[in-house]
Specification:
Radius of gyration: 17 Å
Largest sheet: 4 strands, antiparallel
Strand content: 35-45%
Number of strands: 19
Structural class: mainly beta
Strand order of the largest sheet: 1-2-3-4
Oligomer: single chain
Helix content: under 10%
Length: 209
């Protein structure tokens, strides 16, 4: 379901499959189990490794839990239960204590303290119909607080870590423009790509064209 690599040691790799998280410390030659859920129906869908302190590992599952390890996967603690599948976890490139957890259909959750407390950002999306239905999320490494959210509404942009949002105009509006994946250049936040079921689209001016 997902793969994450230790920022300080490229041979330390985490991968999730079904209800299990496995870990390799030798570039994928051998693997050991780092976590498993007792419910076989649960899927671990997202992994994030803290670039500031590589011992901090975050995983999100289909039950809606965000679970954290402080010791590189040796032990785990549930940090939040959102009761909606956690599809993506992203740490802010400017401050790894700022964490975004994207749920499948209840919007984005944000923590400013490494997962100890959370703020529901869905209220800030209420003016955009379908915005709680998650497709993809990108956090810019260039500009602090800059987010791009692909959702059932379309494409949204925030410059304050999700406290407020503005919409970006897509080539085709409505259901025909349902976004499957989103990418923003790490060197230029105005270079945006999104993919629908039939098209591959690019903007070089921050979504104006």
């Amino acid at each position: 379901n997902d793969v994450a690599v230790d920022y300080k040691s490229k041979c330390v790799i985490y991968a999730s499959s079904g209800n299990k998280l496995i870990k390799s410390t030798d570039c994928g030659r051998t693997w050991s189990q780092a976590y498993f859920d007792n419910d076989l129906k649960i899927k671990i869908g997202s992994i994030a490794v803290d670039y500031y302190d590589e011992k901090n590992i975050y995983i999100g599952n289909s039950r809606g839990d965000v679970i954290k390890s402080y010791d590189s996967g040796a032990s785990w603690q549930a940090m939040a239960r959102f009761k909606n599948e956690v599809q993506k976890i992203i740490l802010s490139p400017q401050d790894s204590r700022i964490i975004f957890a994207a749920t499948a259909s209840k919007g984005i959750q944000r923590s400013n303290d490494g997962g100890n407390t959370w703020v529901d950002l869905s209220e800030n999306l209420k003016d955009y119909s379908g915005a709680k239905n998650f497709k993809d999320l990108v956090v810019s490494p260039l500009k602090s607080g800059l987010l791009f959210l692909a959702s059932g509404y379309g494409l949204l942009k925030s410059e304050d870590n999700g406290d407020s949002w503005t919409s970006l105009t897509l080539i085709t509006e409505g259901k025909t423009s349902a976004i499957n994946s989103l990418a923003v250049s790490p060197k230029n936040e105005n270079e945006i790509y999104y993919v629908t079921g039939t098209t591959f689209n690019r903007s070089l001016d921050g979504g104006q064209n």
